[in-house]
Amino acid sequence: MTGFAHVLKPGRIGTLELPNRVIMAPMGTEMGTPEGLFTEREIAYYTERASGGTGLVMTGISAVSEDYETLNAGLCCVHTDAALPGLTALADSIHAVGGLVSLQLTAGLGRNINVIDPDRLPISASDNPHYADPSVLCRPLEIDEIHVLVRRFGEAAARAAAAGMDAIDIHGHTGYLIDQFMSACWNRRTDVYGGSVENRCRFATEIIAAVKANAPGLPVSFRLSVNHRFAGGRTTAEGQAIAVVLAAAGLDLIIADDGSYEAMDYVFPPYYLGDACMVPAARALKDVVSIPVMAVGNLTPENAEAALAAGDADFAGIGRGLIADPEWAGKLAAGNRADIRPCIRCNSMCVGNAFFALPLGCAVNPQVGLERERRVEKADVRGHVVVIGGGPGGLEAARVAALRGHSVDLYEAGSKLGGVLLPAATPEFKKELRAMIAWWERQFTHLPVSVHLDTTIDADSLATFEADEIIVATGSLPLLPPIPGLDGPNVMDVLDFHRGAPVGHNVVIAGGGLSGSDAALELAGQGCNVTIVELADELARDMIVINRITLLRELAEKGVRILTGHTVTSVDADGLTATGPEGAVHIAASTVIAAFGVRPNTALTQALAGRDNVHSLGDCVHPAKVGEAINAAFMTALVL
After folding, report:
1. Given its phi and psi angles, is residue 110 left (phi above 0), alpha (psi -120 to 50 degrees) or beta?
2. How far is it, in rounded angstroms, from Cα 492 to Cα 54?
3. How far apart are CA 88 and CA 102, in angstroms?
4. What angle do the packed helices 392-403 and 626-638 form, to 10 degrees?
5. How far apart are CA 347 and CA 514, in angstroms?
6. Interior angle at CA 344, CA 342 and CA 346, nearest 5
């Protein structure tokens, strides 16, 4: 018995039988050709998720039209028959591994369009301000233009059916063009497409009808934001009313989420929002519609099972979790829950790449988007690899080297694996980071990896002379500026705090980067009175903007005092002094936490200089994010 009976139970969407209740939620990949056609790279990415046991794979958006706006390069388009070969190849590839595939169709982005075309205004339901540049007003679509888009949906649906797609999804959420029509906050029309809920939904219901007429028998789903999560946006009650209208139009499935560009952290929920953060949206729709509802948003196997068992949803939409591990469903079915690689919800290389029009990547799964090119195969010559440092870079390097068939000895100076990842992951909102350490440890149980804890390796250690290849992943050291009093008894490094060093009630954190800001959030949650002092004009300036939105909101809600643009000049027994735009200020505190950042620990790399079998990676080369260290480690070990 796997313990995930509801997740693994077969399901039905319209006429389509699914082997389980796991659906890959639609996510953009930025892997298309410049013309917007599916590529072999993208097909391999989706196929890997289908072969991993996913009940239904949904693609990212494909535009049905370029009549009134043009999507960014890399996003797919199905507005002409030129799309048919790629669509057919995708369907054939997924069917070849026993999978099912749904094509997501979009009318466009409207006021959320990424780049404003100088030759034509962005479009919308009404003359709404463009999201990124409110000085630009959108052009309301004319009725005949709405009819063109509806017809384009029918044409695209016919192509999807001809290509062998199993279902079609309509992209209707988070304030994109269809949502702009459905939402009272953006639709001020006085014609048949504005006013009442039914009128505002008319564009959507006509699209549903056109899709069903042109792809007879194919199930049709619709992604709906139940609550926009901003003042003046859609409420849950309005979302429920819209869902009733959409269901009556003949939908077979509604995907329930929350958010909008005005609350973008709900569009791509970071770790701060916690588990199952949008299951209440699915529950709200289950209360008013009889068709199946899919929940999304930071779902783990456990809370997906709980949501389905409680009747809060009928299907579990797994997005970034399936980026991190394409075998998410298959491992559950095999009873191997512990082998599912966690998504750490960092957004850095999935959403972050999309923001810069780069192909999808993953912090914890370096094979994403390069499934064919980055196959881990046995090395022609197998040897002895010594990995020095048990942080994320060292752990991933050891795993991949062992998969290549090498015998691996991993040396860690501390008493536990994880490096700085272990203490940094103490907050509950970072529990998936802790889970990554356990995942690596689990992988080592069936790989030729010997772990040596409490063992310091230097250039004269016998292990370095016995190794065919040496991977140095010794991490970083705290950066401590020459500030008077910073060596006082009331001062601790941020990692010492995470390791459990006691703190007083009044705490000042010197440094407002990600480490200092997360520590402040954790301390404030424990009831401490916290102040952050930061030299720059903003906190966590290197953090992806989506995660930062939630961080700043939660810091404000928990009453954390923030002093940006201030330089710490001294520390004393009663707190610290900082100089800002209005001069010097003293902040009283019983504990001062130093979070000035880190510097590379280059001692071993320098001591081993001259040996041609040494490979350094991660923070000991330059301070990097977790994903950068993991990806560098994977690539280093892949060629050994």
Report:
1. left
2. 47
3. 12
4. 30
5. 14
6. 155
C-alpha–C-alpha distance, residues 63 and 72, integer Å: 10
Measured CA to CA, the distance from residue 486 to residue 593 in angstroms comes to 9
Terminal-to-terminal C-alpha distance of the chain: 40
Query: What is the pLDDT, as a whole number, of residue 394?
Result: 98
3-state SS string over 338-399? HHCCCCCCCCCCCHHHHHCCCCCCCCCCCCCCCCCCCCCCCCCCCCEEEEECCCHHHHHHHH
Q: Tell me the residue type at 533.
A: V
| Rounded Cα gap, residues 578 and 561, in angstroms | 14
The helix or strand, by DSSP H or E, that contains position 180, with its residue range, turns out to be helix 177-182
| All residues at 6 or more sequence positions from 100 whose CB lies less than 8 Å from its CB, including other chains | 16, 18, 50, 55, 56, 57, 94, 166, 167
Q: Which helix (H) or strand (E) holds 600?
A: strand 598-600
By DSSP bridging, strand 598-600 and strand 476-478 are antiparallel
pLDDT in tens, 512-554: 999 999 999 999 999 999 999 999 999 998 889 899 999 999 9
pLDDT at 303: 96
Tokens of residue 571, six digits? 């520390």
User: What is the rounded CA–CA span in Å between residue 295 and residue 304?
Assistant: 8
Quick one: pLDDT at residue 147? 98
Q: Count CB atoms within 10 A of the CB of residue 158.
A: 16
- Whether residue 140 contacts residue 127, with contact meaning beta carbons closer than 8 Å, is answered with yes
**What gap in Å lies between CA 313 and CA 221, rounded to an integer?**
14
- What's the number of CA atoms in the CB half-sphere (13 Å) around residue 203? 33
Percent of the chain with pLDDT over 70: 100
DSSP, collapsed to helix, strand or coil, labels residue 2 as coil
SS3 519: helix
Q: What is the largest CA-CA distance in the chain?
A: 82
Alpha-carbon Rg of the chain, whole angstroms? 26
Q: If pLDDT is split at 50, 70 and 90, which confidence band does 420 have?
A: confident
Confidence of residue 2 (pLDDT cuts 50, 70, 90): low
Task: Inform me whether the pLDDT recorded for 1 exceeds 80.
Answer: no
* Catalytic residue selected from 176, 193, 271, 272: 176
- 8 Å CB contact between 46 and 59: yes
Nearest to 102 by CA among 59, 135, 137, 70: 59
Structure tokens at 625: 């994010």
Residue 358, pLDDT above cutoff 70: yes
135-150 b/e (C-beta count within 10 Å ≥ 16 → b): eebbbbbeeeebeebb
Q: Is 169 helix (H, G, I), strand (E, B) or coil?
A: strand
Cβ-based neighbour number of residue 130 at 10 Å? 18
| Stretch 407-427: mean pLDDT | 92
User: CA dist 208 to 45, 240, 244, 499, 552, Å?
Assistant: 28, 18, 14, 55, 39
pLDDT confidence tier of residue 214, bands split at 50, 70 and 90: very high
pLDDT tens, 22-80?
Answer: 999 999 999 999 999 999 999 999 999 999 999 999 999 999 999 999 877 778 999 99
Chain length of the chain: 640
Please, are residues 272 and 345 in contact by the beta-carbon 8 Å criterion?
Answer: no
Neighbouring CB atoms inside 10 A of 166's CB total 22
Is residue 176 among the annotated active site residues?
yes
- Of 211, 245, 252, 300, nearest in space to 56 by CA: 252
Which one-letter amino acid corresponds to residue 364? V
Please tell me the pTM assigned to this model: 0.96
